[in-house]
Design goal:
- This protein has four helices and three strands, in the order E-E-H-H-E-H-H.
- With 83 residues, it is α+β, with helices and mostly antiparallel strands.
- The protein has a single domain, classed as GIY-YIG endonuclease.
- Strands 2-1-3 form a three-stranded antiparallel beta sheet, sandwiched between helices.
- The longest helix has 12 residues.
- The chain is globular and about 40 Å long.
- The mean pLDDT is 95.
């Protein structure tokens, strides 16, 4: 385990106005993978536009737990979280 390594939950807005949620230890690198169509099947089919939300965590487990929680939210709840 790396000391002081941080993990992030992020939400991407796609060109067709969908929201995609994921977690990573490097948001910029992960977003670039999504842009190249290599990040996830979902963002390969739904081209990313921009990152609209990020939140930092100290552990991978915390980030995964928050990603799962966000994925259970409705679109309206996700929009409220982003604001």
């Amino acid at each position: 385990m790396e000391i002081n390594k941080k993990y992030y939950v992020y939400i991407i807005l796609t060109v067709n106005n969908k929201l995609y949620c994921g977690y990573t230890d490097n948001v910029e690198k992960r977003f670039n993978l999504h842009m190249e169509g290599k990040g996830a099947k979902y963002t390969k089919a739904n081209k990313p536009l921009k990152i609209v939300y990020t939140k930092e965590f100290d552990t991978k487990q915390e980030a995964q737990k928050e990603e799962y929680r966000i994925k259970q939210l409705t679109r309206k709840e996700k929009e409220k979280l982003i604001k």
